[in-house]
Structure formats: C-alpha cells, structure tokens
Amino acid sequence: MLSRRLHCGPLRVQKPFYPEGDLCHVYLLHPPGVMAAQDEMVVRGEVAPGAKALLTTPAANKIYRSTGLRSEVEQHLRAAEDASMNLVAIDQLSAKFLLLDFVIVESGGDNLSATFSLELADLTLYVIDVAAGEKVPRKGGPAITRSDLLIINKTDLAEHVGASLEVMDRDAGRMRGERPFCFTNLKTGAGIEQVVDFIVANGLLDEPPTQSQQMDVGG
Fold it and tell me: How many of the other CB atoms lie within 10 Å of CB of 27?
C-alpha cells in the first residue's frame, strides 16, 4: 500500500497497480522523457516493514549528450528494520544440517552500528577496532548501546594510533549503562576468556572442556 506521496518537480507518481497479486508496482513517470544538461533529479523512498514493491523510473535516467555540462540523478531507498530474509536463510541452514548446535551470523561494513538488528540473533556480539579511534564508543548507535556484549578489540594498536583505552572505557560505560563490554587482544589472548565465559553463560552452551578433559578424550 502506498501510504502517501509528495510531488515536487517533473516526476509524477502513477497510481499503484497489482499485476502480480500482492506485489505493488509503482511507476515514477518523467514527462520530459530525458535529462538535459545541468539537470538534477533526486528520488528518495522509504519502505515499511514487510513491504513488497517494484519501484521503477522509465526514461528518467536517459540523458542528452552535452559538451561537458553535468547532469545528476540520485536514488535513495531506506528500508525499515526487517531481518526476515536472513531469518529464512537461518531456517534453511537448520533444515539442511540437522545436527547444528547454533548458527553464527556475521555482518560487516560501513555504518554497521546504524543497521544493527536485534531481531537477527538470540545473542549479539558487536566488535569494534581500537585502530578506528577512541571516538567510536561515544558515537553511539544501536549496536554500541543495545548489543548483548560490546567487544573493543586490538588494544595493542592503541599506542600506534593515539587512542586512549581509558577514554574508550569511560565512553563505552557511559553509552551502554549496565550492559557489559570488554577489551580484547587476539594477538596475546587477553580478554578472550571473558568473551568465552559470556557466550557460555548467555548463549545456553555447554562449558568448553578443560585441557585435562581434552587429553582424556584424545587418549
């Protein structure tokens, strides 16, 4: 369902129609047909949770040839938080591999804190890098403030990038309140035991075997 529309400029939003049942088709019509030199067009859309739609702009991206003059077309689509596609993938993995104990979902990229979703996993660990600078914890965002455990990794790089671990500790505590966080260094193993203990305690997993138990099993 198209909830509202606002028109400003040459584009026209055609009345939505449903040739494929519940899939809404919306056409943004561009009466001039092409972009001329120095034209600028910006299309922004917001998609609600569970929405299904085909959004297209016929002829809107055709541009007249010009002698060095610039034309610009920008399209921005903001989708509401919805982890359903990833949850389907997890269900498929669970059905295919029946002996799975758990599924690890890894996500990365720019601005991950803003796109972080609590729907996706029963237990969320968010890892930031000291090399990105001491300001990262105080930037906030859903992942910084709402993840089950915030892990500040690569503490050994602090001195090389001029980052203060004391400042990061203070800012992380201020942003997270009562939620836990820890510092780790995979190179030396510092802090890893704390992460393992957290996963065992909160992830409903069995405690890892001790070294003597591993030797007994091997023997």
Answer: 17
